[in-house]
Amino acid sequence: MHWIYWVLIGVCIVVLLNLLLLASMIFLEKKKPQTIIAWLAILTFLPVIGFVFYVLLGSGLSPRVKKMIKKKAISESDVLKNIRGLKTFGEVSGAKTLSKDSDLMKLCFEMGAYPCLGNDVKIFCHGYEKIAVLKQDLLAAKKTINMEYYIFANDRVGREIMDILIQKAKEGVKVKLIYDAIGSKKTPRRFFLKLRKAGGEIAEFFPPFMHIRLLNLKLNYRNHRKIVVIDGKIAYTGGINIRDDHMGANKRLSPWRDASIRIEGGGAFPLQNIFLDDWRYTKNDKTDANQYIKQYFPTPERKGDTALQIVTSGPDSKVQKIKEVYIKMIVSAKKRVWLQTPYFVPDEAFVSALTIAQKSGVDVKIIMPAKPDKRLVYLPSLSYAREIAESGVKIYFYNGFMHAKTLLVDDNKLSIGSCNLDNRSFGLNFECTAIMYSEKLNAEYAQLFEEDLASSIPADKNYFKTIPLAARFGQSVFRLLAPIL
Predict the structure, then answer these.
(1) Does domain 321-484 match CATH 2.30.300.10?
(2) Regarding beta strands 234-238 and 226-230, do their DSSP bridges make them parallel or antiparallel, or are they unpaired?
(3) CATH 3.30.870.10 is held by the domain 65-306
(4) Catalytic residue among 101, 180, 231, 347
(5) Catalytically annotated residue among 31, 130, 303, 405
(6) Residue 269, SS3?
(7) Tell me: the pLDDT tens digits for 345-359?
(8) Which long-range contacts (CB under 8 A, 24 or more apart) does 476-479 make?
(9) Residue 226 is a catalytic residue
(10) Is there a catalytic annotation at residue 403?
(11) Catalytic site residue 31?
(12) 224 is a catalytic site residue
């Protein structure tokens, strides 16, 4: 009877803890119902382990962290007012010349994304293409290099880029590098310390306690952005990390298809701004914001004819900004909505937007990878793909790994960034994406998309019936956990 007594005590403690966690989710953190259901399933079937998982993965950012992130932010409005004296939406956007997109532009503007006109934008579909040009730009840097990557690996391409950063730092260029603690967990700290010894500066986003990788209570919140800004005039963003895999070196996932952009012009400003916000928070930098504005934001020059906005999202915001902008783009489409994503784990609102567009006569196509890199996320992705395929949305599986995160709408709107079409990217990760207004870029990427279709397998509703029963069972189970994957 003695051991039964202690077992009952243990069960009561576990039940009480689970109830307290659920109360916290509902009343304090105010999580979405689907997220609560997912955690309830874990807490029910894995009562003790589930509690540990929640402490490590489920609890949101503390109010202190959110407050500090906002406190360190340099608003784009402050940057623009100091440089060009622009204040209103009409002044910034040149809305008269872009009237047909003013509603989308206004939505992005209200979320802090200022329209930047007169940019030259180059698209890269493969990592090696981007890295070749990036090396040239880094070597030509005169004053500043700001770099932020989710993954910065200690491999061939990582060492090549690091050697250039060290060289430029020794030449007197101000070099700053942010890397994510989780994304770059396999990269030893001594690899980054070489840059510091050369005169550069480094910062680890959400570092673990005492630099012990497993002791990181923020490991569920990752800085997934990929940003480079050189001399405040040239910027890069997109989905390509500094890692050999992203250069196509992984034979299991070959061919690797990705997407990144190079921006020259005033469109570098918002990416500079995002980097400095992350830098000031990560380093607890108390430098006056106006000093950074003078140092990192030169007078903008018109380099092309592309207008763009950079939209960010992250767990520090109550609004899932990128998701809302994407939904706006999808439901406003008249002709086509073409998507590419490595992971497709959307919420009900996003699924509804896609199916409504399709039923309204819009050509909705989604390209996903046929070769997954993360099985646990791929299983629910297949479940959602089957669901929307049954509604008429056209699904294609690329014969390789599709890592590009793109959204092409009608003939003049294109998004390329770091944000996957899943709950993690929409709500848990720090992300950014470029919304570009250009018929030229749209036509260029539409051609690339069609080439990808030629290398993809079309999947109608009958395609998913060929999937084995065991795999379909796994899809259903992991779909239940989709909100927290």
Answers:
(1) no
(2) antiparallel
(3) yes
(4) 231
(5) 405
(6) helix
(7) 998 899 999 999 999
(8) 476/383, 477/379, 478/376, 478/379, 478/380, 478/383, 479/379, 479/380, 479/383, 479/384
(9) yes
(10) yes
(11) no
(12) yes
